[in-house]
Specification:
alpha+beta; about 750 residues; 8-stranded antiparallel beta sheet
Length: about 750
Amino acid sequence: MTTATLPSKTIPAGVPGTSTPVPATTPHRWSFIRAGGLDQVVFRSGADIAHIAELDQKLWVALACPTRGIDFDPRTLDLIDTDGDGRVRPPEVIAACRWACERLRSPDALLAGGGTLSLDDLDDKGAAGADLAKEGRRILDLLGKNDSNTLTLADISNRSEWLAAMRFNGDGVVTPDTASDDALRATIEEAMRTHGSTPDRHDRKPGLDRARAEAFMADAKAMRDWYARAEGSDKALLPLGDRTIAATEALRAVAAKIDDFFARCRVAAYDVQAVVALNPSPQAYDALSGHTLDVGAQPIAELPLAPVTPSRSLPLRGTSLNPAWAEAMAVFARNAVAPLLGERDALEEEQWQQLRRRLAPCEAWIASRPANALAGLPRERIDALLATRDALLALIAEDEAAEQHNRLLVDLEKLLRLQRDLLVLLHNFVSFKAFYQREGAIFQAGTLYLDGRSCELTVQVQDTARHAALAGLAKTCLAYCDCTRQGQKMSIVAAFTAGDVDFLFVGRNGVFYDRQGRDWDATITKLIENPTSVGQAFFAPYKKFVRMIEEQVAKRAAASEAGSQNALQSLAGRVATADQAAGANAAAKPAAKPGVPSAGSRIDVGTVAAIGVALGSISAVLVGIFGKFIDLGQWIPVALAGIVIAISGPSMLIAWLKLRQRSLGPILDASGWAINGRMKVSVRLGGMLSQTARVPPGAKRIAPDPYRERHGLAGAVAAACIVGAVALLAWRMDWLDDRLPPRLQHDPATTSAPGAPGA
């Protein structure tokens, strides 16, 4: 671990033209630890969190992370992600640290975790901390914890429920249930009926907000002012008093139709020949007769009020009146004609004009009536609604005043969440302490068990193809898996950093355990192969060679089997037809010459000779190689080592280079992170992240494997016997005389006879 200080600023001082290094502020001393090839800051005190803005961002491990797809409380990340773009960046982390420290007496409270705060931890000397302390005290009192001074995240985690249970929850929406009396409740219901409603933010019940309430009361006031214009006018405006409005409304309903009737009658009086044209034609009645008639139908209503004749009066009732207008004319006769002209059955044009003149002032007044949703309400109802105006707006203001408490409640939730989660985020964002100390980093999705190994470096993936395009640069063996559980599905990528990869292939199944301990069925869908160790790379060429031999042998065996099947099929056909072809063959076959072998003979002397020559050549080559090898003498081990290096060296070199480049960065970058460094995954760390199966210490095997392979020793003995036989044969046939050293060659001239001197 190392400590470092930030460079101090220089301020001009002393002699003009010179500058003396003077620290502008006391620099904060940081502590670092090196892990993964990077210097990573260590948060040992709250002061480290308070001074996070002073840490050079080039020393941050990550510069961005997503708010979803990681093992971290999304609500906390949403509170930190102030711009709401689904990503957390250094400015937002710095702002969260500063925001929390400004409201606490000591930033050391952020190191404890647990989501628990004492009201004494809040800085009551500052306005923000004092407001939170008062709000915390109020919440504890509401929860019945008068004797407690400790606020927990659980106390406000269900704030939506108990805010909905409160009369005022701060959203500025009042419901009929909020009203204190029946009159106010009726006003709220009427306003919701005419001006619509808005849902309450907490319990989603329909209610009334300030904008709708003020619009409703404005319409009510406009109606009251309209009614007030009639109060100070003379009798000409309301000749029938309160009944004048009803009379005028009845007149307005039929005025256009009555004017049309009298106009037609005046034209007919002008020229009697127009009577036929001014009345409905027979064709119009023929069109009506073809349908099921309804006296209120539009085609009937378009006919004149009564048959048109010169200078005729308008009947107010009777069979000669258009049935579509019978009801409206009856209301007109009852409300307007009878009170002003007396009871009568018909109306002359002069009487009609007199009626229009008397109701014209009221008609103009009605035309000026405000066109709003309250136009149909009587004056008494309008006055009753306006009487509750002040009470309604006061009720809304009282609910809006609770919004301050609601904002403070959100701030308390944020502070409690930061107290619980901020240090964890810093250990997974500014540094990767949680990952390198194997405490479970937030990007690790869980553990995959497959191929006798447990892989802890697993990351959730949204798009496999897109992720693999970048993650392949990590130089790590990666297996993409589709995980399913009870109808749910997700994709992960697991890094195999130890063991071999011989039996990893697409379609292989395993079990994945997420961070909550739930088990998922996992199936490999894509594999990116890379070496996991230099030792594995050493045997890779030999394994490839063996696989190639096995494939070739399998192909040859398949071809031989196919040939054998064809031969057997042909033989079976010949056997089945042997009796039919025997006579024909005997007649057509010429007599064989003495001493000449038949054409169907299986023994070919030339073939046997060729095989012998081939075997001799092969044995000569093998003997030559063996002789050269024997000539090396004491350098034989070096030759063997050279052969092994020539075969395995390139593979091991490539593996060593890739292992040096193996890093975590591309895997996380492909998942939406912005990793600032390479984040190396060394062989030692890789061995911890992918652990192979091992028998527990102290365990013992109580019985041998009854199904173990038994031909291993026999094969080795057979190979040794073959090599010994070849060597013995070469020695007995003097193949090695010209290749062995002179002292080992067989020379009768120099060899002493038995019993001779020096023998």
